[in-house]
């Protein structure tokens, strides 16, 4: 497998991103991990280096900031490191009815979930096309295939990612650069803590929730095989397939019912 190749992973200190880092490190990829928390980055880097013996570079950046992805790119470029695989994973949501959620936080979420993906993908896709080799993994979500009451903005950002992925896959289908769209469903990560969504019924019950390591393995396998899209988990595949034939209004009502707060208060906290 790869011995000198490098993968850049956003959101690589926890959840699916952290497990993807393990997948790459196991195959001896060097890593560049991008996240906000310097302490978590240092801890993660030390663990991966000790376990797998690969080089791990960390870059602490707040990807809520519009300039941050450009700064990361320039920092990596200045180091002379070639990024062979780009993994856009970092993402957040906010739970609650749209009229009660914080618009400033939502604008940050749009920047993180969409803006950062666009910048990183454009800059590294251009480099990869110039070499005619490389791989990109865009972590979308089955949320992007479904309406999302109580998470309206998050679902909309993932619809953007999924659509964006399909479009640029078509544009670059004749190159040796592959772009893979990973669509997880409910996954047992700290996403729900950050989104204040632990009080949602389906999260509290962990109903159909997958382990991040299993999702990461599905995504990694699809990425290495050059596949366009992978929906992780049998029941998630069923849900997306069913949503394609059931009217959106009924899908929205079902998701609303499943994700209602256990305390009955749908307002954002």
Automatic annotation (TrEMBL):
InterPro entries for the chain: NAD(P)-bd_dom_sf, SDR_fam
Entry keywords, A to Z: Oxidoreductase
SUPFAM superfamilies: NAD(P)-binding Rossmann-fold domains
Keyword Chloroplast on entry: no
Molecular-function GO terms, alphabetical: oxidoreductase activity
Domain of life: Bacteria
Matches recorded under Pfam families: adh_short (PF00106)
PANTHER family xrefs: ALCOHOL DEHYDROGENASE
Family: Belongs to the short-chain dehydrogenases/reductases (SDR) family.
Protein name: SDR family oxidoreductase
Source organism of the structure: Hymenobacter gummosus
